[in-house]
Amino acid sequence: MTTDEEELEMPTALITGITGQDGSYLAESLLDKGYDVIGMVRRSSTVNYERIAHIQGAIQFVNGDLLDQMSLIDAVKQHSPDEVYNLAAQSFVQTSFGQPVLTGETTALSVTRILDAIRNVDPSTRFYQASSSEMFGKVAEVPQNENTPFYPRSPYGVAKVYGHWITVNYRESYNLHASSGILFNHESPRRGLEFVTRKISYGAASIKLGLEDKLALGNLDAKRDWGFAGDYVEAMWMMLQEDSPDDYVICTGMTHSVREFCDVAFGHLGLSYEEHVVVDEKFFRPAEVDLLVGDYSKAAKKLQWKPRTTFEELVTMMVDADMALLDGRLKGLA
Ligand code: NAP
Ligand code: F7E
Question: Ligand 1 mean position to 19 CA, how many Å?
């Protein structure tokens, strides 16, 4: 092979969950880096490529479902990826209380399905598992780092602990390059509408435009370490470029309450959240995670990663995006 041909050979990445928030940002980033991006999508009755519409032409899609072992094996066989990013999951904590078995199958056991596909097809494939700060749950220490014990507080958190440990186990048992990113909450204008940050940014924008008057939320005192999804997908990629696989906490190191999020979001639009936010117990959880705040010093030291977006920048970015979205819809109707 000549040097020119070598230079033309781009790495291939397979992303599960490409239609989700993180999948869309990671796909953008990997395409920018020159990767061939393969996106695994599951069958649905309507196409839901909204978040990746702008890059759809650059992605190759492969059909597959986390619940179906053969489809995962076929996806890996067909595309021989250098890197697999497992971002797909039943990711909503509230739903995991109502659908604990589905959450276990999807968010926990499927990690083994993918690892087995890699182990059998090509064990040199590098693997990223989307672990979560929800694993810390009822926190044993503040802030949380890679050595903090897990105490999950939801079927989702329990499922993520399984996914995390099976990744560690396959790394140690079969020498796979399998890394786990323990990511704290990360948000963006592409966040699903049911998550609290987007619910607030969308709700505040709807109220500002006169479409609604009230926003019903649950526990306003819960505290989270919220960062920007665009910053966090870079850390995923950095982990897979390391010589050795490992686990990393990715976060901002700052924590804010749901109430503070409301204050900044409504305040950005010249509104007072106290006049519009009402508390509805139906949004409370059977068991709550009261406080999360992480320590990203290992990622800073080993990966040279750090968050770039502040809390205020994140909130205002989301509110501005929802104002533009709703304003555009209203103008389309006029
Ligand atoms: P998301 O927006 O909810 O996206 C989830 C993705 O998983 C979607 O593409 C969804 O496909 C796909 N999916 C669900 N069930 C599937 C199945 N049975 N087969 C194949 N695909 C399936 O989640 P996200 O916020 O991007 O999060 C990405 C990952 O990071 C998830 O594993 C999540 O649990 C984890 N995580 C997220 C955060 C956070 O704050 N965002 C923090 C820590 C960890 P459809 O579009 O077809 O539904
Ligand atoms: O809730 C409180 C709620 O649903 C945040 C997922 O990406 O991050 C996410 O999980 C907090 C909780 O995210 C409402 O009780 C109050 O304390 O936005 P959330 P989450 O549960 O932290 C982790 C790291 C993940 O891995 C998950 O995949 O906000 N809260 N009122 C509310 N939450 C919602 N959804 N809706 C409310 O009305």
Answer: 8
